[in-house]
Queue: 4 jobs
Job 1
Amino acid sequence: MKSDIEIAREAKLEDIEEISEKLGILGEEFWPFGSYKGKISLKAVDRLKGEKDGKLILVTAVTPTKYGEGKTTTSIGLSMGINKIGKNSSVAIREPSLGPVFGLKGGAAGGGYSQVLPMEDINLHFTGDIHAVTTANNLLSAVVDNHLHFSNELGLDTRKIVWTRAMDMNDRSMRNITVGLGGKSQGYPREDNFIISAASEVMAILTISESLDNMKEKLGNILVGFNRNNEPAFARDFKICGAMATVLKEAIKPNIVQTIEHTPAFVHSGPFANISFGTNSVVSTKLALKLSDYVVTECGFGSDLGFEKFINLVSRFAGYKIHAVVIVATVRALKHQGGGKDMNALRVGLANLGKHIDNVKSLGFLPVVAINVFSDDKQAELDAIKTYSEEKGATAEMSEAFEKGGAGCIAFAEKVVAIADKSNGRFKRTYSLDDSVEEKIEKVAEHIYGADGVIYSWDAKKKMKLIKKMGLEKMPICIAKTPLSFSDNKKKFNVPTGWRLNINEINIAHGAGYLIPISGDIMLMPGLPRVPSAEGIDIDSSGHYITGLS
């Protein structure tokens, strides 16, 4: 089979203005970026507010291997499959980050005959949204250090500055740094660090903001640090929020592209699900729901990460109804969870799928298991997953989107639509906002992860006292955790038992409106692998022919 980039290059795309027009976007609401990508004005969101919402279909997955299990490919294929059966669907997914593109996982635009296009642009700089997030983040950092250099009128304690710099790249050497070296004219020396842009609170704020004014208010509420009297200092204290919002004025507008079969695709915002909440922007998804009868959106990694956060955090902000949930499973992932490569390992690893099914069912959904078919899968293996899923009370169907596009998802799409059509969109949540911070963490750890309890470090306990003092206990939580295990240890496969979740620290995303308990050895700045994907990416002398992207 041809490579992803070869398939993408041979695809015949429609002009994106025609796609947006057919979708119902007016000419004055559309801003083209060339022929095949564009942005939609927030005026369209305002105009369509009174229209009826379509059905929202949420796609999650089993615990993945480090290569991913084709959740984006499946989401795109499902949306195309829904259109194949005569319904009206669009897909809404998050933007790829350059860190994984040049690192290990590669791009995030689908694969094979189930892609969003133009994949080279989407996987690289796209419409500049992530660059804008990085710039706004670092503008605040620069202004904070400038404030320290000239006066420090706010009396900031340089040991208690919590705002960090950001970059859209995996670079472990930037995790802990010292700034301001070189003498008096170079600034005030202090310790600092970098996080990847996808983990920036600015990215989270962009994702959940629904207007410029709403975004500006959230930016102003960002917690920068504390003064010598241990009183908080916020971004608004530095008179910088207007400039930050100006940098983000185009980034907040949803991006529209198309799938390989011309299905409208909203690709907007890009928070990771292991260290943030991993979903498409609220404004983009809400716009898609006004324009389509069925919207397929994905949440990062498994039910223990993106799905849990979508239910307990994102949907609280957005007010979503959710009409169907899909769990993507692969033979490869379940064998990995079972500790081998044979049929017996698959049978053992099915317990991992079972836990994800239980998680989804516990929150009020009847899940559809999408078995993402790889070319070397054996029929007996696929049948085993299907039979097990049905025994667990889920619906199951094969997804062959990678090799067949929408045509490979017709039976799958019919089952998802049947469930969505019967649903009223209501669901349960894991915790109440009135629960204490400890109760929220423990309910997620025990009910979603399967932990026996939680161990808090001294730093985490100290931070909980501060959170209570600041009156922030009613905020939802967004636990940062490895995606490779239900536990906080990536080497514990399948469904670990007899363990407790380690919470080492709790960060306060005051502007975005949630708390971030940090578990295990999770890093907010990933590193590159020994052989990064960047080594295989190249471009020819014409500047048009790119190789190595996937």
Job 2
Amino acid sequence: MSDIIHVLSDAVANQIAAGEVIQRPASVVKELMENAVDSGATSVTVIVKDAGKTLIQVVDNGKGMSESDARLCFERHATSKITNTADLFAIRTRGFRGEALASIAAVAEVSLKTRITGDELGTHVRIAGSQLKTQEPVQTPPGTNFQVKNLFFNIPARRKFLKSDQTELRHIINEFNHVALTYQEIECTLIHNQIEIFQLPPTNLRQRIIGVFGKAVNSYLIPIESDTSIIKIGGYIGKPEHARKTYGEQFFFVNNRFIKHPYFHKAVMNGYEQILAADHIPSYFIFFETDPSKIDVNIHPSKTEVKFEDERAIWKILLASVREAIGKHNLSPSLDFSKEGIIDIPVLTSETEVRVPGIDTNPGYNPFEGEHTFQREKKHHLYGENRTEGWEQLFEPAPEVAIPGNKYLQIKNKYILSPVKSGLMVIDQRRAHERILYERIIKAHENRQPLAQQSLFPETIRLNAADYQVCLEMLDELEKLGFDIRDFGNNSVVVHGIPSDMSPGNTADKLEMMIEQYKTLQSELDLGTNERIARAASSTSAIGYGKHLTEVEMQELADQLFSCGNPNNSPSGKSIVKIIDLEKLDNFF
């Protein structure tokens, strides 16, 4: 039998590694920016064209590379960060595996120009698909200049699955922000299609956050600080009143490395317990510092998943730190020390006359007088003419239960109950309204007759840079659905009108929620853009739980629901209507 096992070629092995490390243009930006930081750069410029599909260029003024290093850096597992196993447990640099440049060179056309300060000439290396094309001396400024062109040119299937330019640019902005927020002392610039998105000068953390997310963020940042033997915590959290229903300003960093940590996110949320609505997420920019040997950053190629040795202890320290920060800035509910209504306790002096408290009595009071009258009236009330009224008082419905008539009953301002031939019908009011709005929006889109209501006073809404790109991606389809939203530039849009089915008011919140819903639905590949927007719009606009409905409103909701094409399921597939049959009702008794 012939041998069937063989060693993969370097080119194929590098393409496999690239599949783990380089998932999209943003992955290239991340790796090259981290290399620039590790080179000691004080200025990093990122230039992209067509959201990185055509060009990704990262220029830094770091220490540069020698002629031999410029070639060797593209070899797999070539790294300046690790020399032995022990180094894996003391990592403070951003990159360390030596996979990034080899992976990039395997799936793109790469040009590297680099020069060490003091050298007369630098080195120019060109590689495409892991194959060295040229290497020659060149005149170039000190530092390093990487150009990555035609990403995935040799893997058409991978290139085909890249998203729209707005989506890919949003991911690039997110990776750019991770580095920019971590290294405030470095000047960071991002340019897309010759338009400057960010130009962030060296500064402190607070000013860097403002530079990334806008001046408005300054009003709701409060510092968080804790220093223990296990971990040091610093950074900022947001005031509860500025929390949003969408994600976007939640960041954890450990030893200046961005990480994702759902467990620690819960600690932050618990810190806001009872002072923040359950569906709101506070902003936070939290930095951890700990002994590198106490964490493992080598568990995922992206290095964003980190395992801590003392997770439970850190969770408790983080929770306490958040609560302390909130308390220090008078954000939590406090005691009311106003004098109105308090007991007046006089201050005793040496001249104050002390008297025994007096007791007033009525010597003529007879406790047995009128007893028979009292008992007779009690019996008359319970068993006589008023006994019906007494039962009604005993079984009066709770305040959250509305009884508008014989046909519909609203419970907890959440469910609508109605008797039907087979038993009892229960309708989820929010999901019902979501289904109604969804089908209306889709129908208006198909008929090209969007139902719009123009606003008397157009509202300008500023978004963070990433969400702004998402909104631009949505604009054409939003217009077909009845929205009149126009690009205003500088990460801002102007809302001139919304669909007539949407209730007016809170436009900024609704737009942010729609953007968040749209981002969440992007993982569902079978959904078209218009369907994602329709689902996001219907979810955002549907009446919430806790909304009291009149008899007429419940009747209209039920009538409109059962005229829908699919009255049984919400757009996301959740049940809207349940029937409790008579047999089950009988079994209850």
Job 3
Amino acid sequence: MWSKRCIFSISLMTAVLVSLSQSQNEADSIGSKTVELDEVVVKAALVKHDSRSDEYVLTSELCQGAASVYEVLSRLPGVVYNNIGNTVSVRMDRNVLIEVDGVQVPSEYLQALPLSRISRIQIVYAPSARYTTEGIRYVINVKLKNDFVGHDLYIGNYTMISAGDNNGSDIVANEQPKIQYIYSGEKFDVTAGYGYGTIHWNYPISYSRNYTGIASVNTADAGPKSPNDHNGTNSHAANIGIDWQIAPYHILSLRGMYHNDRINHESVYNAALKEFQNDSDTDYRETSIESSEADNISAAAYYQGVFHNGWSIYSALGYDRLRDNLRSAYSGLNVYSVNRHRNTKDYIRGELDLNYSFNDAMALNFGYRGIWNNYKTFNRDNNQLLSKYEDNRHNGYAFFDWSFANSLLLHIGTGVESIHNNSFNSKRDWLNFLPQTTVTWQPSENVQLMGEYTARMEYPSLYQVSASPAFIDQWLIQTGNPQLTPSRCQTVSLQATFFDALILGAEYVHSSNSITDWYEKSDGNRYLKTFTNARNREFRTVAAYEWTITKGLTWNNIIQWQWQEIAGHGLANHASNLSWNSNMEYWIKPIELLVKVEYSREMQKIPLLQGWQQFGQDLWQLSLRKTFINNSLSVSLNYVPPIHIGVRTAQKSCIETPSLNLSQNLNLRTYDNLLMLRIEWRFNKGRNKQRQVQQYEFDSEQKQDKGLL
């Protein structure tokens, strides 16, 4: 394994040295060798279509009343920005990567970027293999104007206030001050930022648990004025980046991020116990406490170069280190238990991506990606190793692009992924072929069509394989499953865009070993909640529509119908959902005030092998936004009214097995009368210059939570 890492490091340095030797005589000829697919420009060059993407020019109309690039994104067809969770989805798919001039940047950088420096926003619907092998479905590329040598400084604060007194004693539910600095030089660009967050969300939760032949537990209903599930988080996040233009069209980048999170979760229930064996009834107080202290460091080096002979090279070497100290405590009727564990993750990634342009119509893309991932769980009291999960992945791929017939593009190829998994009890190897085919056709200026087939691998996350146990009550324990296997996910999709305003799409997804919750009876009167692999099928249709009613008044809609089935262990279950996001904006030009009304129906019922659960939530929102001092200062106020028309006010789950039945109800009226105030100040000063484009990307570990915003 170490020899392969050394080989990759040598390849990275060789690419840099080759670029330096060739850079002196290639600067004038580079641009003409880049592949340019056929394009059609419509709407007086305000929207540009090619066979991979749509590109939007940032006009004054598109930017009016907006303070950040996120707010501009929310005005593009099929794009939804969730201002509470700070997430972006394209056609209701959250597997989205956002870049600036081909560079993935922290969210603080995007928030700091002045709109006056942005030229275009490109929505890439058919990204290259380097993205799709990691499960990225869409890439949003923010393109800058001729940039400048100078400084950008951003200072902002985001505050959530529970004005309706529905969040217990925590009137201030969320406080997130941030600062980001960007320096653009002749050869060097530097960015650095820091953000702090203190978050306090409290929910009313009630549950019912029935253990067949043993006991049943029911808790009293809890209302929004007296929540019994308390969640607190304190976070520190810092980022730094350096870009060095070592020669024209050759960029070397270094990126680093640090996250420190302190998370506390406490649930307190007034429970009523009925024991079947002795026919007794008992009332008692039940408390569950979970805490986490996590430190996550990520560092990476990137190189990208373009050569006069038609070659372009991208390479990366990154390291990610996570140390998470966990503590769980449970106290109930005659039961008290404390568990202390440590989860660790060490992640190394190496990548080499090559592109060769035969001519303006044909190009070849091939490369290699290696990942070495090591998860471990320790007992913090005696430092005993409880579980380990190692997977080494090697992915080689080759794809061919052919643009012909003026507006038709064929993208075809395959990846070959080798996986070696090693845990306490087993060693397993997989070899998977991951083919991909994309056909895009633009028969006219107003119609774009795309068909796509992709295959990719999905992997369990740290908490799903960690063996650290946690008591849910005196009978039920939760733990991860180190025996989980990777899943091969195949997707077939069709998409169409008409007149730059109407988007239609359909998608079918099949996963052979998707990961889902699993409940089983253990020894004696013990029950276990863990994870297992199962077959998953999903079908969804999406329609998005943008309507400019009058000047300054626009209406954006996106609606999705989804059907999902999961099967395994001799069981099968399915569910369907209708999701909808609709927003209407009105720009009052005389006073330069933006008024927005938004309705989002995003709660989804997810089938499990033994039941179902709900994630997400439904909301109405009213917002006002105004800018001052030549758009350098912006103030926005969002309000969640207690309107429950079309809003489901409870998030539920239900589990039914021969040995136990569980149900839970989480009251979402916590969000009634929620106020969100965002104040942002941007300062920039400098002179114009021409910038070069580069690319890099980060990997991040995602952990599933309650699914709330």
Job 4
Amino acid sequence: MHHEQSPVPGHPYENPLAHLRDEQRRLQLLLQRKTSPSETSRVAEQLDELGQQIASRLADNERSGRSLPITRLSRSLVLSPLEVSLVTVLLLAETSSEARSLLSPHLPSGMAQGTVAHYLDILGPDEASQRALLSALSPSGTLRRHGLVFLAPDSGWAPTTPLLFQRVKLSDRLVSFLHGEERPPTHALPHGVSLFVGQRTLGQLTLPTGLADRLRDALDECAQPLLSDSDGSVLPPLCLTGLRRSGRKSLLSALLPGRPLVVLSASSLQRGEAALVQTVQAALAEAAIAQGVLYISSAELLGDLDPALFEQLRRMLLGSRVRVVLAADGPIDALWTRLPELLRVDIPMPDRATQTALWNHLLPVDMLQERGFDVRALANSYSLPAGAIWRCVSEMVRTARLDGSKQPTLTMSAAREAVRKQLGNRFGDLAQLVSISLSWEDLVLPPESMERVLEIVAYARYREQLLGKWGFERKLPYGRSISVLLAGAPGTGKTMVAALVAKEIGLELFRVNVARVIERFAGETEKNLARIFDEAKRQQVALLFDEADTLFGRRLDVRSSQDRYANMAVSFLLQAVESHDGVLILTTNNEKLLDDAFRRRLRFRIALPLPSEHERARLWESMLPTDTPLADGIDFLQLAQEFDLSGGAIKNAVVRAALRALAQGGVVTIDLLRRCAKLECEEMGILVATESDAGDLDEDELETETHE
């Protein structure tokens, strides 16, 4: 058989194929050594000479900055020369028809793949080499642990196939990499695995002071082995805790330039042992091939894995020779108990100044901004991690450019919409969004009550300066929250005030579903409340507790276990209110029912009285939209004098009157308003004396007229 003359040593290989041609010559010599014992000395000299030539050329590739994939893999996993030889021979056996022709005579009859014993015979000239190769092909060996080499049983053996007689194969991903495919096609990665390559340097990131140094120190500490055993060094995994989209991947990539992150979602590891092993091995293989980092997201879910599954995962991670970094978005107590080797670093939420700097840094300088566009207002209204701010800016820019205008402009409304999309809503059925189309002009309150409501807005706007620069944070005993109690009879506008305050501050308002929060099982109420407060902090929204005395009522004398559980819920709420940093609004019809400790801890307590006669007249008039046809001469003051109603009852009466006017095909008259006001009074049990109801439209007539 004719073979090419050996290339002149001292020149780097042009590509992986050129290197494989030399490796095929080495394979031929290895087989010749096996079949021609009389020529052992001569073949050994040729093998030594060829080995030196190959090593020299690979070193030249390194020096020229064009290292071959096999060299990078060997460096990444600290492979032995014997392991490298095994990989190259397997690669030739699977991809070169000429190499297969060389190997075929040495394979057992009818077998397409070589076995462990087969490759021991070729690559292990002595007992020590064979023991090393057996160790390399054991389940704990580097190549198998990282999913680069697989062994398959032989059906001729039962019940199990001995290691020596198992068939050997390279992973498909490793084959493509060794042939020069640096990045795998996206569809080739298993479910739950993806690649992240950072695009920004450390200098391009806006970070809290000291965070980069703290994480760099932790990475250095994780590079120190915990112990060494027959399987090699055990590196402690690093866990980064913080909110989702806090920029952990970007920061990690900036600290480890040139090392991609192989991202493995922990949620994809709960489908049984076989699926877990396959997915983790694929991720480890990609991290080893790319000389990257295995980055496990949502790592708090690992603490919920079945014990047997977790132990399997633990052995795979701790025995790996690639760097492993976990990222947890939630509590990691269960994970830490199971994996005490974990080194934890908390990634804090950026402070307001850092968030403002992030907005300014990421906003494009070549786009217009509407008048009043203020990133400080965004940073003060919404607390967002770095990644979420980046996504908000991307969404805003895309929306502005798709608007079709000649000069795309960034607007505050688009910014708030982008923020809402990033925050999402995980309250489920525990709380619902409160929407309002009314404005301050629609709110009718006594001047002293309105002044106190506007004081809440002022506190929200100047809270940072008041507590920080002016030093009042040291003087206020119950934290930084904006906690408000609105007390008053039904219909006095408590919910409307809450919605307007939240709207003015720039926050969405979520009404807590008290019926869903309170559970009859011990501890469940506290879990629901914890979820509500955690989600409110994450989304930076205001919370509204209607009829707050249901939850915040006085603690009871303990006469039963139910009383004890109720008191526990109240105590939990007390702690939650103290530690909450956001906007909390409570409404009640009877302030005396609230626990005294709550009332002391609420920063604002405002009583909303029933409207006076003059205020009722304003309410009657303001409740009627300008588009509603009205009869001439409606005396709103007369209606206010005749009916002592709350604002809510007046609104109901106005809507009923408008409906009747539509059904009759007429306009809203004072008689219709008077009759509907009387109906509201009767439904509330209030007796009033009014003019005759002659000519009133009964309910049957109303229904008939409406259908017509």
